[in-house]
Design goal:
Length: 345
């Protein structure tokens, strides 16, 4: 098995965006409701029975089916034994052409009890571009919020109240933010990011709008309002906690640099990789590689080599063995979690 260059996989969404994604991937503009690229995905879009969201391989088969047939080759024996036949990871490129509604993702305990899933949706962002005066994210309440107060905001879709009570964080390219499940948040317009997350499409909208494809039931995963509210972290998020979740582009020029804090390792891992000072060898592991800048090669043990450039997305199976990046590349290697499911406090 060798690394596989992946074509864009862009299921239609309810919100607008996609022009920065078009430019990054070097593809013609699509309609303005395809703001996400699901890379190496074994996850379906929530509420669909079609293949929307799933990655299709060159031979027309689904990546999900290929992994289920040979999980050890794709993911390695340790992952297959501990976490099963799928990668426990979803990687996206996300280009917000408008502010996303304030929403929250359920944690694993809530997902097990109410949604029949072992996974919730803790996620993390690496900001690639930030344009305009509103290029900021909103994350976590600034004060404790009572249940009946939140119920009222949700029932009335009171966006001004929700935004006024969330931390507003200006962001710049290179910034990282870890978003624990349960923490309310929104991404502002003009932000293009690489997102790692648990392998679900669970979202509960705290704010509803007249989007083309969003109905109120779907916005709460079919749950009653009071039950949906249970998964929301209503306590104030302190400045210290926010600082622990945030990272900024460092001055480090190390060949391999961790992107997210250790708390993220039970959900996903990511490293920023620079090959400008010489080849970077990567140990055998399943990974999704996204090239942020430059040009170069990805070589594997079998003698194969893929040409890479800004916007390339590559799936690296465990059975590809040791690989190496060479040339002048800036890339991110996205990998599955280190351990089994747990909650992120």
């Amino acid at each position: 098995m060798r690394p596989i260059a992946l074509s864009p996989n862009r299921p239609r969404q309810f919100y607008r965006g996609g022009s920065a994604l078009d430019a990054f991937r070097g593809i013609p503009a699509e309609d303005d409701h395809r703001p996400e690229d699901w890379i190496g995905s074994t996850t379906r879009r929530q509420g669909t029975t079609s293949g929307a969201g799933l990655t299709t391989l060159e031979d027309g088969s689904l990546l999900r089916d290929a992994m289920l047939a040979d999980p050890v080759a794709w993911l390695g024996p340790e992952h297959a034994a501990a976490l099963g036949a799928l990668p426990s990871l979803l990687v996206k490129l996300l280009d917000a052409g408008e502010r996303l509604p304030v929403h929250v993702h359920p944690g694993r305990d809530f997902a097990r009890r109410h949604l029949g899933s072992r996974y919730g949706k803790t996620e993390a962002w690496l900001v690639l571009e930030a344009h305009g005066a509103e290029a900021r994210v909103h994350l976590g309440f600034v004060r404790d919020v009572a249940g009946d107060e939140l119920d009222r905001w949700m029932a009335e879709s009171d966006a001004p109240a929700l935004l006024a009570n969330l931390h507003a964080l200006d962001v710049a390219p290179g910034d990282t933010i870890l978003v624990p499940a349960g923490m309310p948040h929104a991404i502002g317009p003009g932000i293009f990011c690489l997102e790692l997350q648990e392998p679900t499409d669970f979202s509960i909208m705290l704010e509803s709008r007249d989007f083309d494809e969003l109905d109120p039931g779907a916005g709460r995963l079919g749950l009653e309002l009071e039950m949906a509210r249970e998964c929301v972290e209503r306590n104030a998020v302190t400045a210290e906690r926010l600082a622990a979740l945030r990272g900024h582009d460092s001055a480090s020029r190390d060949s391999v640099e961790r992107l997210f804090p250790e708390d993220a390792d039970a959900f996903f891992r990511a490293e920023r990789i620079r090959s400008e000072h010489g080849p970077v060898n990567l140990e055998p592991d399943f990974a999704v590689l996204v090239v942020l800048d430059g040009e170069g090669l990805l070589s594997d043990e079998g003698g194969g080599a893929l040409e890479l450039r800004r916007g390339s997305a590559v799936l690296i199976p465990f059975a590809a063995g040791e690989t190496a990046l060479s040339g002048s590349l800036l890339a991110v290697r996205c990998r599955p979690p280190l351990s089994g499911p747990k909650e992120l406090g």
